[in-house]
Write a sequence for this structure.
């Protein structure tokens, strides 16, 4: 019985890791699509978001089944409850990537000169996604805390991006407002991805320590 | 034993309802603060967001304790799992309201003429919050489905707001970019609140029917 249960917990870890990888490649594709003005790459993100949503349901069903049939206690219960919560944040990362991709597809943007430093922002949040999932799979509290600490960097990058837009476009004549608003939304979506990795990391800490720390995003 | 368990489930319902009411009054205060350019009302929203976060932890602890000590099955397990998920969406509604309030406080905005129809948007999402919590407390699937159906209205209102900004500011001279970007962010926060009520309604349906339907936001 315990053996089957352990196998199911391992499948849970593997599926979470798969979802994490899908999120990472979505974020990478988003920034490439944006920098190259390539709607084809953006289309791939849209497809991945569908897969991520499907996997969310798989994990939810897995967790609910484990809760119902195995009546787990202590650490196992914490790990399963944490997975049930984390999976929503992973799905929303897919969703935010999808929102970025849709802007690239419909708005024919080309931000190749990257005045807002969006590539850097994408790299940071991508690292945070990778680390938050690693922290879960390896039950690594230190790595989870590292993810939480990095969120300030992302918030600052969003504020910098907003200021930069005001600096570049504010008080100017004949402003391409649509372009400016779309860039702001993209920066915001990256910032939200950072927030979701913090939520994941906080649930990882709960799974390990049994204590819910800090604020939620 | 069952009696104590029933009492605890009732406390759970009551706390969810309290959180819902805090969210509703936060949204109302946000739109009043914005329309009157009143940072004092916005400060109240900031204080409420702290209370909402604290209540989120209370509900989480309640749910985890019920899962651990009572090993619930069937409908009870579904209700508790749903509450554990929904509470994050409620907390994020508090968070989005807080984000709006912070813009009102720091940016000295006055959108009194309401060119973006934000008051209407606030009214709709406020109704959706109320209904989603009512649907949970009364286990009302029809009301939950009604909330989900209304989200298109909110998405459309956001797109209209964005188009309106482009229309009003695009191609103009000496644009107040900061003002435009802040209004867009506020519209986006209201739209996200709508998304969170849809997530809540979907979990209500799961609690009632045992089936997870539709996509997540």
């Amino acid at each position: 019985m315990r053996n089957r249960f352990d196998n199911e917990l391992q499948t849970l870890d593997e599926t979470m890791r798969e979802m994490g990888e899908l999120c990472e490649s979505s974020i990478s594709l988003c920034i490439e699509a944006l920098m190259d003005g390539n709607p084809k790459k953006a289309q791939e993100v849209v497809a991945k978001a569908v897969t991520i949503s499907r996997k969310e349901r798989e994990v939810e069903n897995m967790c609910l089944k484990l809760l119902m049939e195995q009546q787990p206690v202590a650490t196992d219960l914490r790990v399963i409850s944490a997975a049930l919560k984390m999976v929503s944040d992973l799905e929303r990362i897919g969703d935010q990537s999808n929102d970025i991709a849709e802007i690239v597809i419909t708005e024919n943007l080309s931000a190749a000169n990257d005045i807002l430093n969006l590539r850097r922002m994408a790299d940071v949040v991508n690292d945070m996604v990778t680390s938050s999932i690693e922290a879960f799979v390896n039950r690594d509290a230190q790595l989870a805390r590292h993810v939480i600490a990095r969120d300030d960097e992302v918030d600052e990058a969003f504020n910098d991006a907003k200021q930069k837009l005001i600096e570049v476009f504010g008080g100017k004549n004949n402003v391409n407002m649509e372009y400016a608003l779309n860039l702001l939304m993209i920066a915001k979506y990256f910032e939200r991805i950072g927030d979701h990795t913090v939520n994941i990391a906080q649930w990882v800490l709960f799974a390990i320590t049994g204590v819910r720390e800090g604020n939620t995003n």
User: Anything to note?
Assistant: The helical segments of chain A are 2-36, 39-70, 74-107, 118-137, 141-169, 177-209.
